[in-house]
Amino acid sequence: KQWYQRRVAITAGEWFADMFSRQVFPQASVVGHGVAGECVAIALKHANQLSVNGLDISFLMHRLLQPGIAETLKRNHIQIMEASQLRAKEEHWKKCEFNRQTGDIKKLDDLLKIYNLDLSKYCVSTGDDKIYVTLCHSVISFVRSFHSYLLDAKKMYNVRVKKQLIDSITSCLQFQAFQLKLAPPDSDIRTVVSSSDMFMNKEFIPAVISFLETQVTQQPVPQIRNILDTNDML
Fold first, then answer.
1. What is the pLDDT of residues 117-148, one digit of tens each?
2. How far apart are CA 231 and CA 234, in angstroms?
């Protein structure tokens, strides 16, 4: 009986994984970051619950969902890189203006608090409803989209995609950090460029490393730490 129950569970798991992969992963790029990761997390949670009844198929589910997870991470990485390249071309190296009434500044502040970062040190208030952040537009946009990418990756992560994930994150961070080194040597934009460079290399990248090592890989990520050493030499 136990063998039969396990066989049924495996067959049902294979059928579910096939339907899941057909329905969820192809739509990930359409509905945006986060949806695929949330669906994977829910699917694996239910698979783990079967172990209570002696039907542990979590390993099977990880293996069957692996191709879709890898493809989704790859697709998300491409989207991040394409968006970063486009923003780099359009960068004017000016501080970003926010209106208190829209709530956008609070959303950015709340996002950075997840990484224990303080936005206020980069804020300049004019006394009215406007707040200026001495970070360039491409950096702020990158942080927003990259945060969603990280959360999605966290939910889908397993050891089989570790190298792919670390390679993708490294290339994204390297590109964004290096773009700041290519800013024109104009004294009018020096404050924003310097502030953005400090934020990326002294705050955001170290925060990403900590997030990965404590909440995702549970292991050191020296490849990403090397970005900081490389940037210090430039």
1. 999 999 988 777 889 999 999 999 999 999 98
2. 5
Residue with tokens 């066989």: 7
Long-range contacts of 73-77 (CB under 8 A, 24+ apart): 73/153, 73/156, 73/161, 73/164, 73/165, 73/168, 74/164, 74/168, 75/28, 75/29, 76/28, 76/29, 76/33, 76/149, 76/152, 76/153, 76/168, 77/149, 77/168, 77/171, 77/172
CB atoms within 10 A of CB 211: 19
pLDDT recorded at residue 7:
54
Burial class (CB in 10 A: 0-12, 13-18, 19+), 91: buried
Could you tell me the CA-to-CA distances from 232 to 32, 206, 209, 219 in Å, in that order? 34, 13, 17, 24
**Cβ distance 88 to 138 under 8 Å?**
yes
Tally Cβ neighbours within 10 Å of residue 143: 21
Torsion of CA 199, 203, 205, 207, to 10 degrees: -150
Tally Cβ neighbours within 10 Å of residue 23. 10
Beta carbons within 8 Å of 126's beta carbon, 6+ residues apart: 132
Rounded Cα distance, 33 and 72, in Å: 10
- The first and second tokens of residue 123, run together, are 């804020």
